[in-house]
Please model this.
Amino acid sequence: MTRILIVEDNRHLAAGLQTNLEIEGYETETARDGSSGLARARTGLYDLILLDLMLPGMDGYQVLDALRESDTETPVILLTARGDEGDKVRGLGLGADDYVTKPFGLRELLARIAAHLRRTHRQEAAEELGNAPITFGDIDVDPATHIVQRGGATVQLRPKEYDLLLSLLRHSNRVATRLELMQEVWGYHESVTSRTLDTHIAELRRKLEDDPANPRWIITVRKTGYRLNPNG
Model:
């Protein structure tokens, strides 16, 4: 499950963020000062960090600077009441991935979180698979060029279809739950439903399977998710 660290000294705001993020399917933890937030962030256990700038003791800038100095690459979204452009430039210059000014809309924040998680999951999938071509049956996938071929002919996949195929390949020969796929491909944004996933699976089958109604490669695991069967 995707884990988010909330570093925020405002108890009510932190609790509200925690509740809403958990409703969205994320696992969360909170820290109320910079020092404890930095210590937790350095564990590398989180997929994304929400970091307030105005923290007691060690402020958000110092936390961010220390994180990047220690080569921690976890995406960081800054939360702050400061709206000055200079503050934004400073935060981004220290390695922040995004910047949200208080008061912010929950939907906007969730959208930004989802976008950064999608990018991270896409990078992880690509790194895990490497650049070597992958072949199963008459299907060839080249992660280096994003080209997919079937029987030597190029298959035109939309970006989300390609990301979904990569995710299935990453889970090859084991079940990928619906939640895992939605988080990895879409960041599990509120606009994404199980129907969205099913529609993309159906399109992949239509383009890759000889008989989409009786798939050989992309297998449905009832009440759980999907499994890519590279051995057919």
Q: What stands out?
A: The chain is about 45% helix and 20% strand. Helices lie at 11-23, 34-41, 60-69, 85-93, 106-129, 159-170, 178-186, 194-208.
